[in-house]
Amino acid sequence: MPTPSGPSPATWPLVVAPGQPQKPASSPGCSTGSPPTGTPPTQPAGTIRYATPSPAANPLPQGTCLEIGSGTGQFTCLLASVFATVISVDLSEEMLRQAAGRSPARVRADASALPVADASIAAVAAIDMLLFPTETARVLAPDGVLLWINQLGQDGPLYLPAEDVAVALPGHWMATEAEAGWGTWACMRRTH
Ligand SMILES: C[S@@+](CC[C@H](N)C(=O)[O-])C[C@H]1O[C@@H](n2cnc3c(N)ncnc32)[C@H](O)[C@@H]1O
Question: Can you say whether the dihedral through the CA atoms of 62, 152, 132, 9 is positive or negative?
Answer without folding.
Answer: positive
